[in-house]
């Protein structure tokens, strides 16, 4: 049995690796995506364009604005001279926010009264707006503390003391790049397995496979192993890039992580073979993989928290293996989580894998006979 499975597996690898287009699909996209996501995908704002409408010529307003000019995250400062210039700047997305300092700003804070600083935000991108507002708050709080200390203020304004666990620098790359491990492993594994049976039918070699002495189970295993091995290699490559190239800290155990990869690939292979077993052409296989892949990524928590989704959609995510593996890979990287904390995430992927492989076997048997 093992000899026949090994022979079919060798045949699958030769088919995959001898095809130039297939080699390009397996090699170029993962490298391109890890570089693109690693360098460009970020929740941070590093260049916030803003405008200033300053009606106060006093020293306090000049000191406050100097802090914005010296901050690395703020650039492209535009000076506004009257109220009518504000709306066009926001509407045409020339600036993210406008700082409006009233004419009595310096006089008010010199007399112990709060000076008014109005911040007008472009709220069309709420995430960027909230991040920009947090930057403004930090600068204003630092200004208030410095002003109170240098001008003999008795009461220093309240300060935020932030202690960020697991990501002290709040670098969003530490959140995104581990998630890419799950994303690319799923993409590559689905591409390989979703086409494995479909390409046999399209090439006309499926009938030749039927007359071999191999049983449906042996054919299914032989078709599964190449996708598993390629997905395993891709995941290892991306993990290496994340640690050595992008310097994402790895605080957990590789044994914990790779057991998660094993269970995740098991479920991905089952889904891919199930799609392939009902596909007549490679185009249908690719379309089926795409139809699964897009919802799987959206409903996995890769970009948006699952807790923010409607309750019904949250229940649907339990059928998505990527949901579980994302938690495993991010927990092992940033938290150093162990088996004791993650064991309840492994068995759902095993169940999904067994269910889909069983369904693929039944569909494959029906197609054979």
What can you see in these coordinates?
It is a single chain. The protein is an alpha/beta fold. The protein folds into 2 domains: 2-41 and 171-368, no CATH class; 48-150, abc type-2 transporter like fold (3-Layer(aba) Sandwich), CATH 3.40.1710. The chain has 15 helices and 4 strands. The protein has helices at 2-18, 20-40, 59-70, 86-91, 105-110, 126-150, 173-196, 198-203, 206-210, 216-245, 254-277, 282-298, 311-316, 321-335, 339-368; strands at residues 48-54, 74-79, 97-101, 117-121. The protein has a 4-stranded mixed sheet with strand order 2-1-3-4. Helix 3 links the parallel strand 1 (48-54) and strand 2 (74-79). Helix 2 (20-40) packs antiparallel against helix 7, helix 2 packs parallel to helix 10 (216-245) and helix 11 (254-277) packs parallel to helix 15 (339-368). The two termini are 21 Å apart.
Brief rundown of the structure:
This protein is α/β, with parallel strands linked by helices and 369 residues long.
- Tell me the structural class: alpha/beta
Helix and strand element order: HHEHEHEHEHHHHHHHHHH
The Cα radius of gyration reads 28 Å
N-to-C span: 21 Å
Large-scale geometry: elongated
Please tally the helical runs, counting DSSP H or I stretches of 4 or more residues. 15
Segments where pLDDT lies below 50 for 5+ residues?
155-161
Largest sheet: 4 strands, mixed
Order of strands in the sheet with most strands:
2-1-3-4
Strand content: 5-15%
Helical amount: 55-70%
Q: What is the domain total for the residues?
A: 2
What's the pLDDT, averaged over the residues? 81
SS elements, strand count: 4
């Amino acid at each position: 049995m093992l000899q026949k499975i090994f022979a079919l597996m060798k045949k699958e690898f030769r088919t995959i690796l001898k095809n130039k287009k297939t080699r390009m699909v397996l090699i170029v996209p993962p490298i391109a995506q890890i570089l693109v996501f690693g360098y460009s995908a970020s929740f941070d704002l590093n260049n916030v364009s803003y405008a200033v409408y300053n009606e106060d010529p006093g020293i306090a307003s000049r000191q406050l604005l100097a802090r914005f000019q010296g901050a690395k995250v703020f650039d492209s400062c535009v000076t506004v001279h009257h109220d009518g210039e504000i709306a066009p700047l926001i509407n045409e997305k020339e600036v993210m926010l406008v700082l409006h300092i009233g004419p009595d700003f310096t006089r008010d804070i010199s007399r112990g009264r709060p000076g008014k600083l109005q911040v007008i935000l472009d709220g069309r991108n709420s995430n960027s707006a909230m991040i920009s507002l947090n930057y403004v708050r930090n600068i204003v709080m630092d200004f208030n503390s410095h002003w109170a200390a240098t001008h003999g203020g008795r009461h220093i304004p309240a300060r935020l003391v932030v202690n960020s666990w697991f990501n002290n620098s709040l670098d969003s790359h530490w959140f995104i790049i581990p998630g890419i491990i799950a994303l690319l492993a799923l993409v590559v594994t689905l591409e390989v397995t979703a086409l494995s049976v479909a390409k046999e039918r399209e090439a006309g070699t499926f009938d030749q496979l039927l007359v071999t002495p191999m049983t449906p189970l042996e054919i299914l295993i032989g078709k599964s192993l190449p996708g598993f091995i390629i997905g395993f290699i891709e995941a290892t490559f991306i993990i290496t890039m994340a640690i050595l190239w992008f310097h994402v800290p790895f605080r957990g155990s590789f044994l914990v992580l790779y057991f998660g990869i094993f269970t995740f690939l098991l479920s991905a292979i089952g889904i891919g073979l199930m799609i392939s077993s009902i596909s007549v052409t490679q185009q249908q296989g690719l379309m089926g993989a795409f139809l699964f892949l897009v919802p799987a990524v959206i409903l996995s928590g890769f970009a948006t928290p699952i807790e923010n989704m409607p309750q019904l959609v949250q229940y649907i995510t339990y059928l998505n293996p990527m949901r579980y593996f994302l938690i495993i890979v991010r927990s092992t990287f940033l938290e150093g989580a162990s088996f004791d904390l993650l064991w309840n995430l492994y068995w759902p992927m095993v169940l999904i894998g067994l269910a889909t492989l069983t369904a693929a076997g039944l569909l494959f048997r029906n197609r054979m006979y």
